[in-house]
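Weekly structure sync, notes
Attendees: PL (lead), two postdocs, one rotation student
Agenda item 3: pending single-chain targets
PL asked that the sequence for the first pending target be pasted directly into the notes so everyone works from the same version. It is reproduced below exactly as submitted, 390 residues in total.
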Amino acid sequence: MNSDVDITKSRWGDETFIGRFKHFARLTDPFNCLKSDQQLEDAKNIVHKYKSDGTMPPGGLEALWSAKYLYESAFHPETGDKQNTVGRMSFQVPGGMAITGILLAFYKSPLEIFLGQWLNQSFNAFVNFTNRSGDKPLPDSVILSAYLTATSLATATSIGLNKTLGPRAPPIVGRFVPFAAVAVANMVNIPCMRSLELKEGVVIVDSDGNKLGQSVTAAKRSIITTTISRICIAAPGMFMVMLVSAGILILRNVSDTPEILLLKSTEGCCWGPPKGHLEGSENGFEAAIRETYEETGITLDKIDMIDGFQEFISYQSRSRRFKTVVFYLAKLVNSDVKITLSSEHNEYVWTNLSEALCLVQMEPVRKVLCNAFAFYKNTRNRRIAICEAM
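Predicted structure, written out during the meeting:
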Protein backbone atom coordinates (compact mmCIF):
# COMPACT_ATOMS: atom_id res chain seq x y z
CA MET A 1 0.00 0.00 0.00
CA ASN A 2 1.63 3.24 -1.17
CA SER A 3 0.09 5.54 1.40
CA ASP A 4 0.24 6.29 5.09
CA VAL A 5 -3.54 5.81 5.36
CA ASP A 6 -4.42 2.31 6.58
CA ILE A 7 -8.04 1.71 5.65
CA THR A 8 -8.02 -1.76 7.18
CA LYS A 9 -8.34 -0.03 10.55
CA SER A 10 -10.79 2.42 12.06
CA ARG A 11 -10.60 6.01 10.92
CA TRP A 12 -10.80 7.18 14.53
CA GLY A 13 -8.74 4.41 16.13
CA ASP A 14 -9.93 1.91 18.72
CA GLU A 15 -8.14 3.26 21.78
CA THR A 16 -11.07 5.38 23.02
CA PHE A 17 -14.79 4.79 23.42
CA ILE A 18 -15.62 7.81 21.24
CA GLY A 19 -13.39 6.45 18.51
CA ARG A 20 -15.01 3.02 18.60
CA PHE A 21 -18.47 4.62 18.74
CA LYS A 22 -17.83 6.75 15.65
CA HIS A 23 -16.43 3.73 13.80
CA PHE A 24 -19.43 1.49 14.39
CA ALA A 25 -21.94 4.32 14.00
CA ARG A 26 -20.56 4.93 10.51
CA LEU A 27 -20.44 1.23 9.74
CA THR A 28 -24.05 0.59 10.83
CA ASP A 29 -25.55 3.81 9.44
CA PRO A 30 -29.06 2.84 8.19
CA PHE A 31 -28.61 5.09 5.15
CA ASN A 32 -26.01 2.59 3.90
CA CYS A 33 -28.94 0.28 3.10
CA LEU A 34 -30.27 2.80 0.58
CA LYS A 35 -27.18 2.71 -1.60
CA SER A 36 -27.59 1.16 -5.04
CA ASP A 37 -25.72 -1.91 -6.28
CA GLN A 38 -23.66 0.33 -8.53
CA GLN A 39 -22.64 2.54 -5.62
CA LEU A 40 -21.60 -0.54 -3.65
CA GLU A 41 -19.55 -1.85 -6.56
CA ASP A 42 -17.90 1.55 -6.99
CA ALA A 43 -16.96 1.57 -3.29
CA LYS A 44 -15.60 -1.96 -3.60
CA ASN A 45 -13.46 -1.01 -6.59
CA ILE A 46 -12.08 2.06 -4.81
CA VAL A 47 -11.08 0.00 -1.77
CA HIS A 48 -9.51 -2.81 -3.79
CA LYS A 49 -7.68 -0.37 -6.03
CA TYR A 50 -6.26 1.53 -3.07
CA LYS A 51 -5.17 -1.69 -1.33
CA SER A 52 -3.45 -2.99 -4.45
CA ASP A 53 -1.49 0.06 -5.63
CA GLY A 54 -2.37 2.97 -3.31
CA THR A 55 -4.43 4.83 -5.92
CA MET A 56 -6.42 7.63 -4.30
CA PRO A 57 -9.96 8.19 -5.65
CA PRO A 58 -10.86 11.52 -7.34
CA GLY A 59 -12.60 12.76 -4.19
CA GLY A 60 -9.45 12.40 -2.15
CA LEU A 61 -9.13 11.12 1.40
CA GLU A 62 -12.77 11.77 2.36
CA ALA A 63 -14.00 9.75 -0.63
CA LEU A 64 -11.64 6.94 0.33
CA TRP A 65 -12.97 6.71 3.88
CA SER A 66 -16.57 6.89 2.65
CA ALA A 67 -15.89 4.04 0.22
CA LYS A 68 -14.23 1.98 2.98
CA TYR A 69 -17.22 2.20 5.33
CA LEU A 70 -19.78 1.68 2.59
CA TYR A 71 -17.86 -1.35 1.34
CA GLU A 72 -17.46 -2.89 4.81
CA SER A 73 -21.15 -2.30 5.60
CA ALA A 74 -22.31 -4.39 2.65
CA PHE A 75 -19.63 -7.06 1.98
CA HIS A 76 -18.64 -10.00 4.16
CA PRO A 77 -15.22 -9.34 5.74
CA GLU A 78 -13.91 -12.87 5.05
CA THR A 79 -15.61 -14.12 1.90
CA GLY A 80 -15.97 -10.73 0.20
CA ASP A 81 -19.51 -11.64 -0.89
CA LYS A 82 -22.17 -8.95 -0.98
CA GLN A 83 -24.61 -9.48 1.88
CA ASN A 84 -28.36 -9.45 1.57
CA THR A 85 -29.80 -6.11 2.68
CA VAL A 86 -31.91 -7.51 5.53
CA GLY A 87 -28.93 -9.27 7.06
CA ARG A 88 -26.60 -6.28 7.11
CA MET A 89 -25.74 -4.59 10.39
CA SER A 90 -26.84 -1.28 8.87
CA PHE A 91 -30.39 -2.67 8.66
CA GLN A 92 -30.54 -3.46 12.37
CA VAL A 93 -31.99 -0.13 13.50
CA PRO A 94 -34.94 0.17 11.06
CA GLY A 95 -35.60 -3.57 11.04
CA GLY A 96 -35.26 -4.01 14.79
CA MET A 97 -37.45 -0.99 15.58
CA ALA A 98 -40.25 -2.24 13.36
CA ILE A 99 -40.18 -5.75 14.82
CA THR A 100 -39.92 -4.47 18.41
CA GLY A 101 -43.03 -2.36 17.84
CA ILE A 102 -44.90 -5.39 16.49
CA LEU A 103 -43.85 -7.60 19.42
CA LEU A 104 -44.94 -4.99 21.97
CA ALA A 105 -48.25 -4.28 20.25
CA PHE A 106 -49.30 -7.87 19.48
CA TYR A 107 -48.50 -10.35 22.23
CA LYS A 108 -51.80 -11.35 23.89
CA SER A 109 -53.31 -14.10 21.71
CA PRO A 110 -51.45 -17.28 20.69
CA LEU A 111 -51.80 -16.34 17.01
CA GLU A 112 -50.31 -12.87 17.60
CA ILE A 113 -47.45 -14.40 19.58
CA PHE A 114 -46.70 -16.98 16.91
CA LEU A 115 -46.75 -14.50 14.03
CA GLY A 116 -44.65 -11.97 15.94
CA GLN A 117 -42.02 -14.49 17.00
CA TRP A 118 -41.98 -16.06 13.54
CA LEU A 119 -41.27 -12.66 12.01
CA ASN A 120 -38.60 -11.91 14.63
CA GLN A 121 -36.83 -15.24 14.21
CA SER A 122 -36.99 -14.99 10.42
CA PHE A 123 -35.20 -11.68 10.76
CA ASN A 124 -32.70 -13.14 13.23
CA ALA A 125 -32.04 -16.09 10.93
CA PHE A 126 -31.21 -13.73 8.07
CA VAL A 127 -28.88 -11.69 10.27
CA ASN A 128 -27.09 -14.67 11.84
CA PHE A 129 -26.68 -16.49 8.53
CA THR A 130 -25.49 -13.36 6.72
CA ASN A 131 -22.88 -12.54 9.37
CA ARG A 132 -21.64 -16.06 10.09
CA SER A 133 -17.89 -16.47 10.33
CA GLY A 134 -15.78 -18.17 7.67
CA ASP A 135 -16.27 -19.09 4.04
CA LYS A 136 -17.62 -22.59 4.60
CA PRO A 137 -21.28 -22.99 3.61
CA LEU A 138 -23.61 -23.91 6.44
CA PRO A 139 -25.70 -27.05 5.78
CA ASP A 140 -29.37 -26.38 5.04
CA SER A 141 -30.33 -28.80 7.83
CA VAL A 142 -28.47 -26.70 10.43
CA ILE A 143 -30.10 -23.48 9.21
CA LEU A 144 -33.58 -25.02 9.26
CA SER A 145 -33.03 -26.62 12.68
CA ALA A 146 -31.87 -23.34 14.24
CA TYR A 147 -34.74 -21.42 12.69
CA LEU A 148 -37.47 -23.85 13.79
CA THR A 149 -36.00 -24.38 17.27
CA ALA A 150 -35.66 -20.67 18.01
CA THR A 151 -39.16 -19.88 16.74
CA SER A 152 -40.70 -22.75 18.72
CA LEU A 153 -38.93 -21.83 21.96
CA ALA A 154 -39.72 -18.12 21.61
CA THR A 155 -43.40 -18.88 20.98
CA ALA A 156 -43.56 -21.39 23.85
CA THR A 157 -41.89 -18.89 26.19
CA SER A 158 -44.38 -16.14 25.34
CA ILE A 159 -47.47 -18.34 25.59
CA GLY A 160 -46.18 -20.09 28.73
CA LEU A 161 -45.40 -16.84 30.54
CA ASN A 162 -48.75 -15.33 29.56
CA LYS A 163 -50.60 -18.34 30.97
CA THR A 164 -48.39 -18.65 34.06
CA LEU A 165 -48.60 -14.99 34.98
CA GLY A 166 -52.32 -14.92 34.50
CA PRO A 167 -54.55 -11.86 34.15
CA ARG A 168 -53.85 -10.66 37.71
CA ALA A 169 -50.08 -10.34 37.40
CA PRO A 170 -48.60 -6.81 37.33
CA PRO A 171 -49.20 -5.44 33.82
CA ILE A 172 -45.63 -4.20 33.59
CA VAL A 173 -44.53 -7.84 33.84
CA GLY A 174 -46.79 -8.68 30.93
CA ARG A 175 -45.07 -6.03 28.87
CA PHE A 176 -41.74 -7.82 29.44
CA VAL A 177 -42.96 -11.19 28.13
CA PRO A 178 -41.90 -10.41 24.52
CA PHE A 179 -38.43 -9.47 25.78
CA ALA A 180 -38.10 -12.79 27.64
CA ALA A 181 -39.08 -14.63 24.46
CA VAL A 182 -36.55 -12.68 22.40
CA ALA A 183 -33.82 -13.43 24.94
CA VAL A 184 -34.54 -17.18 24.92
CA ALA A 185 -34.66 -17.26 21.12
CA ASN A 186 -31.31 -15.48 20.80
CA MET A 187 -29.72 -17.96 23.21
CA VAL A 188 -30.77 -20.74 20.85
CA ASN A 189 -30.63 -19.16 17.42
CA ILE A 190 -27.12 -17.70 17.46
CA PRO A 191 -25.27 -20.84 18.71
CA CYS A 192 -27.21 -23.02 16.26
CA MET A 193 -26.58 -20.77 13.27
CA ARG A 194 -22.88 -20.60 14.14
CA SER A 195 -22.49 -24.23 15.19
CA LEU A 196 -19.63 -24.87 12.77
CA GLU A 197 -17.58 -22.25 14.59
CA LEU A 198 -18.08 -24.16 17.84
CA LYS A 199 -16.81 -27.34 16.16
CA GLU A 200 -13.99 -26.03 14.01
CA GLY A 201 -13.18 -22.67 15.59
CA VAL A 202 -12.67 -19.24 14.01
CA VAL A 203 -9.61 -17.98 12.17
CA ILE A 204 -7.04 -16.18 14.32
CA VAL A 205 -4.80 -13.59 12.65
CA ASP A 206 -1.95 -11.37 13.84
CA SER A 207 -1.79 -7.57 13.65
CA ASP A 208 -0.65 -7.82 10.02
CA GLY A 209 -3.56 -10.04 9.02
CA ASN A 210 -1.55 -13.25 8.76
CA LYS A 211 -3.46 -16.43 9.64
CA LEU A 212 -2.16 -18.10 12.79
CA GLY A 213 -4.69 -20.90 13.11
CA GLN A 214 -8.23 -21.59 14.34
CA SER A 215 -9.59 -21.30 17.87
CA VAL A 216 -12.69 -22.89 19.36
CA THR A 217 -12.24 -20.82 22.53
CA ALA A 218 -12.38 -17.59 20.53
CA ALA A 219 -15.51 -18.87 18.77
CA LYS A 220 -17.22 -19.56 22.11
CA ARG A 221 -16.36 -16.11 23.44
CA SER A 222 -17.56 -14.50 20.23
CA ILE A 223 -20.91 -16.33 20.29
CA ILE A 224 -21.48 -15.57 23.98
CA THR A 225 -20.74 -11.86 23.61
CA THR A 226 -22.84 -11.68 20.43
CA THR A 227 -25.79 -13.30 22.21
CA ILE A 228 -25.52 -10.94 25.17
CA SER A 229 -25.21 -7.91 22.92
CA ARG A 230 -28.28 -8.92 20.87
CA ILE A 231 -30.32 -9.25 24.06
CA CYS A 232 -29.06 -5.90 25.35
CA ILE A 233 -29.84 -4.21 22.04
CA ALA A 234 -33.49 -5.30 22.36
CA ALA A 235 -33.78 -4.18 25.99
CA PRO A 236 -34.17 -0.37 25.67
CA GLY A 237 -37.07 -0.49 23.24
CA MET A 238 -38.90 -3.19 25.17
CA PHE A 239 -38.34 -1.56 28.57
CA MET A 240 -39.31 1.91 27.40
CA VAL A 241 -42.93 1.91 28.58
CA MET A 242 -42.65 2.09 32.37
CA LEU A 243 -45.52 4.28 33.64
CA VAL A 244 -48.43 1.90 34.26
CA SER A 245 -52.04 2.51 35.28
CA ALA A 246 -54.97 0.18 35.84
CA GLY A 247 -58.74 0.53 35.82
CA ILE A 248 -62.04 -1.33 35.68
CA LEU A 249 -64.74 -0.98 33.05
CA ILE A 250 -67.92 -1.32 35.12
CA LEU A 251 -71.13 -2.35 33.38
CA ARG A 252 -74.72 -2.60 34.57
CA ASN A 253 -77.86 -3.90 32.88
CA VAL A 254 -80.83 -1.55 32.44
CA SER A 255 -83.81 -3.10 30.66
CA ASP A 256 -81.47 -5.79 29.35
CA THR A 257 -79.20 -3.08 27.83
CA PRO A 258 -75.62 -2.83 29.11
CA GLU A 259 -74.42 0.59 30.27
CA ILE A 260 -70.94 1.64 31.31
CA LEU A 261 -69.83 3.99 34.09
CA LEU A 262 -67.84 7.03 32.91
CA LEU A 263 -66.33 9.77 35.05
CA LYS A 264 -65.67 13.40 34.09
CA SER A 265 -62.28 14.71 35.15
CA THR A 266 -62.07 18.04 36.99
CA GLU A 267 -58.95 18.78 34.92
CA GLY A 268 -59.45 18.93 31.19
CA CYS A 269 -63.11 17.89 31.31
CA CYS A 270 -62.27 14.48 29.85
CA TRP A 271 -64.55 11.46 30.23
CA GLY A 272 -63.27 7.99 30.95
CA PRO A 273 -63.56 4.90 33.17
CA PRO A 274 -62.08 4.86 36.69
CA LYS A 275 -58.33 4.22 36.61
CA GLY A 276 -55.07 5.30 38.23
CA HIS A 277 -51.37 4.58 38.73
CA LEU A 278 -49.99 1.52 40.48
CA GLU A 279 -48.62 2.25 43.94
CA GLY A 280 -45.83 0.43 45.75
CA SER A 281 -45.80 -3.30 45.04
CA GLU A 282 -49.37 -3.43 43.71
CA ASN A 283 -50.21 -5.56 40.73
CA GLY A 284 -52.63 -4.34 38.07
CA PHE A 285 -55.72 -5.93 39.57
CA GLU A 286 -55.05 -4.59 43.07
CA ALA A 287 -54.48 -1.08 41.73
CA ALA A 288 -57.65 -1.24 39.64
CA ILE A 289 -59.75 -2.23 42.68
CA ARG A 290 -58.21 0.50 44.85
CA GLU A 291 -58.60 3.21 42.21
CA THR A 292 -62.20 2.19 41.53
CA TYR A 293 -63.04 2.49 45.22
CA GLU A 294 -61.25 5.83 45.61
CA GLU A 295 -62.90 7.37 42.55
CA THR A 296 -66.42 5.86 42.77
CA GLY A 297 -66.90 4.33 46.22
CA ILE A 298 -67.55 0.93 44.62
CA THR A 299 -65.93 -1.96 46.50
CA LEU A 300 -65.03 -5.41 45.21
CA ASP A 301 -68.05 -7.04 46.87
CA LYS A 302 -70.38 -4.85 44.78
CA ILE A 303 -69.12 -6.08 41.42
CA ASP A 304 -68.62 -9.39 39.63
CA MET A 305 -65.33 -9.57 37.74
CA ILE A 306 -65.73 -10.97 34.23
CA ASP A 307 -62.91 -13.47 33.65
CA GLY A 308 -60.93 -13.49 30.44
CA PHE A 309 -60.96 -9.78 29.70
CA GLN A 310 -57.72 -7.81 29.99
CA GLU A 311 -56.97 -4.99 27.56
CA PHE A 312 -53.77 -2.92 27.36
CA ILE A 313 -53.42 0.47 25.74
CA SER A 314 -50.27 2.58 25.36
CA TYR A 315 -50.13 6.27 24.58
CA GLN A 316 -48.21 9.48 25.22
CA SER A 317 -49.75 11.66 27.91
CA ARG A 318 -50.02 15.44 27.82
CA SER A 319 -46.79 15.59 29.83
CA ARG A 320 -45.20 13.60 26.95
CA ARG A 321 -44.60 10.57 29.15
CA PHE A 322 -45.35 7.13 27.75
CA LYS A 323 -48.12 5.35 29.65
CA THR A 324 -49.54 1.87 29.60
CA VAL A 325 -53.00 1.22 31.02
CA VAL A 326 -54.54 -2.17 31.71
CA PHE A 327 -58.33 -2.44 31.90
CA TYR A 328 -60.39 -5.19 33.52
CA LEU A 329 -64.12 -5.78 33.08
CA ALA A 330 -66.81 -6.13 35.75
CA LYS A 331 -70.60 -6.02 36.19
CA LEU A 332 -72.49 -4.50 39.10
CA VAL A 333 -74.13 -6.98 41.44
CA ASN A 334 -76.82 -4.42 42.27
CA SER A 335 -77.64 -1.76 39.69
CA ASP A 336 -78.75 0.70 42.37
CA VAL A 337 -75.31 1.10 43.92
CA LYS A 338 -74.42 4.63 45.06
CA ILE A 339 -71.56 6.44 43.32
CA THR A 340 -69.33 8.61 45.50
CA LEU A 341 -66.95 10.77 43.46
CA SER A 342 -63.48 11.84 44.58
CA SER A 343 -62.00 15.29 44.12
CA GLU A 344 -60.52 14.13 40.81
CA HIS A 345 -63.96 14.00 39.17
CA ASN A 346 -67.01 16.24 39.26
CA GLU A 347 -69.58 14.24 37.30
CA TYR A 348 -70.48 10.67 36.34
CA VAL A 349 -72.84 9.03 33.91
CA TRP A 350 -74.17 5.57 33.07
CA THR A 351 -74.41 5.34 29.30
CA ASN A 352 -74.71 2.91 26.42
CA LEU A 353 -71.88 2.26 23.99
CA SER A 354 -72.97 4.77 21.34
CA GLU A 355 -73.16 7.66 23.79
CA ALA A 356 -69.95 6.56 25.51
CA LEU A 357 -68.06 6.75 22.22
CA CYS A 358 -69.29 10.32 21.81
CA LEU A 359 -68.07 11.32 25.28
CA VAL A 360 -64.68 9.61 25.29
CA GLN A 361 -62.07 11.47 23.23
CA MET A 362 -59.06 9.11 23.34
CA GLU A 363 -59.17 6.66 20.45
CA PRO A 364 -57.36 3.82 22.33
CA VAL A 365 -59.96 4.01 25.12
CA ARG A 366 -62.79 4.06 22.58
CA LYS A 367 -61.47 0.82 21.09
CA VAL A 368 -61.28 -0.77 24.54
CA LEU A 369 -64.92 0.18 25.20
CA CYS A 370 -65.99 -1.47 21.95
CA ASN A 371 -64.04 -4.61 22.82
CA ALA A 372 -65.50 -4.67 26.34
CA PHE A 373 -69.12 -4.43 25.15
CA ALA A 374 -68.51 -7.12 22.51
CA PHE A 375 -66.82 -9.40 25.06
CA TYR A 376 -69.65 -8.90 27.58
CA LYS A 377 -72.28 -9.64 24.95
CA ASN A 378 -70.55 -12.86 23.88
CA THR A 379 -70.06 -13.95 27.49
CA ARG A 380 -73.69 -13.33 28.33
CA ASN A 381 -74.88 -15.22 25.24
CA ARG A 382 -72.74 -18.21 26.21
CA ARG A 383 -74.21 -18.21 29.72
CA ILE A 384 -77.75 -18.08 28.34
CA ALA A 385 -77.01 -20.97 25.98
CA ILE A 386 -75.60 -23.07 28.83
CA CYS A 387 -78.62 -22.36 31.03
CA GLU A 388 -81.03 -23.30 28.25
CA ALA A 389 -79.14 -26.55 27.65
CA MET A 390 -79.40 -27.63 31.30
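Discussion points:
- The two ends are 90 Å apart (CA to CA).
- The first strand starts at residue 202 and ends at 205.
Action: rotation student to compare against the earlier draft before next sync.
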